[in-house]
Structure formats: structure tokens, C-alpha cells
Amino acid sequence: MSKVIEDLISRAAQHRRQRQLTEAARDWAQAIELSRQQNDIPDLIRALRGLAETERDSARNSEAWAAYEEAVLLCRKQNDPLLLAHTVRHLGDLRRHLERYEEAQSCYAEALAIYRRESEAKPLDLANTLRPFAMLREKMGDVDEARTFWREARQLYGALGIDAGVIEASRALTRLGR
């Protein structure tokens, strides 16, 4: 990783945290360009993901979609299944938000399969995949699977001491009729 790219990524992330989305998008775009020039795939993936998140924040969903899609394609070529799982889950979130439910479902199913088979997967990442997958399955009318995912997410959030996740899952289970 070059110092210039690292600085751009850090600055872009800071701009995003400060809700300076135009500046963040500009810095992400510069980091993407430099990463392409240097054939630095890990930084290119980071910058594409950052740009995608910033574009989502700006309600520029087409641009976010394109950045996530490219990041997922690049992740598939890397030997980092957890990065792929995390990236494809975020693409699933965008697809769910855009009511592209079948496409979102395939993203969540892929991320969930990776998290379940990878021993290095963090329980929080698993919970954070189960949660939107449960929302999606509920939206698609599969209440039984939604309940199953909510139960597992609640258990994981509870074990991690994340009360907000436990509360949300408990409310969903109550709504779905345990």
C-alpha cells in the first residue's frame, strides 16, 4: 500500500464520518484511480467499498451498486473469503433496500455460507448477516426462516453483549409470533 493511497483512504473515511460526502467521494475516486494505476487490488477493493458506502449515504444507489459489484468481482479473485463475505453482504443490503429481493437473497446466502464455513469468521459478522437476511425473508413471506435467522442473531448478539441487537431480534420474534 502506498502512503498516498493510505492517506486518501484515511481522509475519505474521515470525510464520510463527518458527513462531508462530496469530499469523501472525491477522495475515494482518487484512491481508486491510484490503486488501479499501481495494480493494488486490496486498496482498490477498500476504496471501491468506501465509495459504495458513501454513494449509498448520498442516495446515489446506481453508483453504489456499480462500486459494490466491482468490489465483489475483485474479492472473488483474492484469497480472502471473509472480505468477500463482508462485501457481498453489503451488496445484499443495497439490493434489499432497492427491493431487488431475489438478488439480495443470493448475496446473503453466499455471505452466510462463507461465515459458517470459515473458522476465522467473527460472530458479529455472522449476526450482522443473519439480521438483514431475516428481514428479507420476512419481507418475502417466509416467516419460518425469518424466525430461525432472528433467533440465531438474537443469541449471537446476546453472547456479544449487543443489547440493541437482542432487543431488535426479540421484537421481530414477537411480531412474527415466536
Task: Describe the structure in your own words.
The chain has 178 residues and is an all-alpha fold. It has two domains: 78 residues, Serine Threonine Protein Phosphatase 5, Tetratricopeptide repeat; 78 residues, Serine Threonine Protein Phosphatase 5, Tetratricopeptide repeat. The protein contains nine helices and no strands. The model has no long low-confidence stretch (mean pLDDT 96).
Q: If you average the pLDDT, what whole number results?
A: 96
Identify the CATH architecture of the largest domain.
Answer: Alpha Horseshoe
- Categorize the overall geometry: elongated
Using the coordinates above, name the CATH class of the largest domain: Mainly Alpha
Largest sheet: none
Proportion in helices:
over 70%
* CATH-defined topology of the largest domain: Serine Threonine Protein Phosphatase 5, Tetratricopeptide repeat
User: Total helix count?
Assistant: 9
Poorly predicted residue ranges = none
Beta-sheet strand percentage? under 5%
Distance between the termini: 49 Å
The tally of structural domains comes to 2
